[in-house]
Specification:
mainly alpha; single chain; 6 helices
Length: 143
């Protein structure tokens, strides 16, 4: 299992903004992260819509974090792009109809396991804050 390329890029973009702690235009973000400008703009729109990034228009426009890196978790950014993490559809989708025999215990045994693992992964991702990921300025990693 892998996160999507879009989710990977989203966390890199947020980390770049957190590390630089200043307003940056999309071209700078694209250059520093190695994400194409077009894809960066798509991701930045999603991040702005969800309150992680603030966008500014005009000559001094650009993007910056909408809140402190100490309050932005890896889970929050991933969920903007991927949705809530769940190991299986039976955990993620309310109307999912499992075809497993549930007569014995009222629920599929795999559902309980998948639910537990999903909770563990979400808790680990929630514990990682972008303030923990800003040890170096992303401008040092130009491609």
């Amino acid at each position: 299992m892998h996160i999507t390329l879009e989710a990977d890029y989203a966390v890199r973009i947020v980390q770049c903004l957190a590390a630089n702690a200043k307003r940056m235009d999309a071209a700078q973000i694209s250059e520093y992260t190695g994400v194409t400008l077009r894809f960066s703009l798509k991701i930045l729109r999603k991040l702005a819509t969800n309150g992680i990034v603030a966008s500014f228009k005009g000559a001094k426009g650009g993007y910056e974090l909408a809140k402190s890196p100490e309050t932005i978790s890896l889970a929050e950014v991933l969920e903007v792009v991927e949705g809530k993490y769940a190991l299986s559809r039976c955990v993620a989708e309310k109307d999912y109809n499992c075809n497993m025999n549930t007569e014995a215990c009222g629920m599929c045994k795999f559902h309980a396991i998948f639910s537990h693992v999903s909770d563990m992964v979400r808790n680990e991702l929630e514990a990682v804050k972008f303030s923990d990921l800003t040890k170096t300025d992303c401008s040092n990693h130009k491609k």
